[in-house]
Amino acid sequence: MSKSSFSIAGVTAAPGAREARVLELIIAGTPTQLPLFVLNGAQDGPTVLVTAAIHGGEYVGTAAAMQLALTTDLAALRGQLVIAPIASMTAYAKRAIYIAPPDKKNLNRCFPGKADGSFADQLAHWIFTNLISKADFYVDCHGGDINEALIPFSVISITGNAAVDAKSMKLAEAFGIRYIMTSSVKGSTVSAAAAIGVPAVLTEVGGQGQWSPAEVQQMYDGLISSLAFAGSLARGFKAMPTHVLEHSASMRSDHDGLWYPQVKVGDTVKTGQNLGHVTDFLGNTVQTAIASMDGTVMYVVTTLAMNAGDPLLFIGA
Ligand SMILES: [Zn+2]
Fold first, then answer.
1. What is the pLDDT of residue 3?
2. In the chain, which residues fall in CATH 3.40.630.10?
3. C-alpha dihedral, 259 to 262 to 266 to 269, nearest 10°
4. What architecture (CATH level 2) is domain 6-244?
5. Cα(142) to centroid of ligand 1, in Å?
6. Is the peptide bond before 112 cis (omega within 30 degrees of 0)?
7. Rounded CA gap, 74 and 15, in Å?
8. Could you say which residues of the chain have pLDDT below 50?
9. How many A from CA of 305 to the centre of ligand 1?
10. DSSP state of 146
11. Based on CB atoms within 10 Å of each CB, which residue in 142, 149, 179, 294 is the most buried?
């Protein structure tokens, strides 16, 4: 048996027990909720954190995290599994894309957060100090947002700490999504985790507000495989053949208006190719999206509605 009970974020689970709570939080003066599952395995092992809905409308991750929370066999679990399936409840409740509604910031650019910042800064700070900093491994489940079609890929943060970076890569390989992107973007969950030595992977599956059984199964299978890699489950895992995306280009709209993409997610595109155009509200073309590199369309916004500053699409190679 695991030697002792385990406490995190004020929730305590006895050895071999599962505790589930909806935490009532006051973040920058705004009441919000955070459902938390704490599974304390019957045997010793690592602490693995799984979060989903850092962006509230990425449902494949939430559905897979719920499945993991409700079905994991505590007798077979080594160490602790901590699962927050809806990390940004205000965004989930409003079906908001990209941002946390109280301050309209992208939560996944606010990590490790600030104790005295606005809502998303303080929520990031709460998640970072209470959950991420207590983990030995971290998987953050994302997907295309409600307005985006996407082919699955994983993202790891490159810190320059070779040991941590190698473990994050192995975690991503164990998760098993074919495409892996290395990122130096600051403010994300995985960059903040890796910066303090917690190997972490951000996984993108699904999009457009859908959560098909096949996509939920892909995310769930990846989580199980990651847990096996971390040593949480006494079973083998097979590192799947993966392909690291060495180059990428993200294109954004310069205008409010209407977006007419001419490519679909997964399409192969060539440098110079016309990928679509944005018109103003009177139908005049105000921007043409031209591919700046050869590659694969990893995600594309599929709503006609477009705002200045929003992503149009993303190419990886
Ligand atoms: Zn996301």
1. 67
2. 6-244
3. -120
4. 3-Layer(aba) Sandwich (3.40)
5. 4
6. yes
7. 9
8. 1
9. 19
10. T
11. 142
Residue 82's contacts (CB-CB under 8 Å, 6 or more residues apart) are 8, 36, 37, 38, 39, 47, 48, 49, 50, 131, 134, 135
- pLDDT tens for 122-157 read 999 999 999 999 999 999 999 999 999 999 999 999
Give distance in angstroms: CA of 313 to centre of ligand 1.
14
Query: Distance between CA atoms of 181 and 253, rounded to whole angstroms?
Result: 23
Q: Looking at residue 16, what is its pLDDT? A: 95
Domain 247-316 coded CATH 2.60.120.200: no
Task: Identify the CA nearest to 205 among candidates 229, 178, 187.
Answer: 178
Handedness of CA 85, 89, 94, 96 (dihedral sign): negative
pLDDT at 70: 98
Domain with CATH 2.40.50.100 in the chain: 247-316
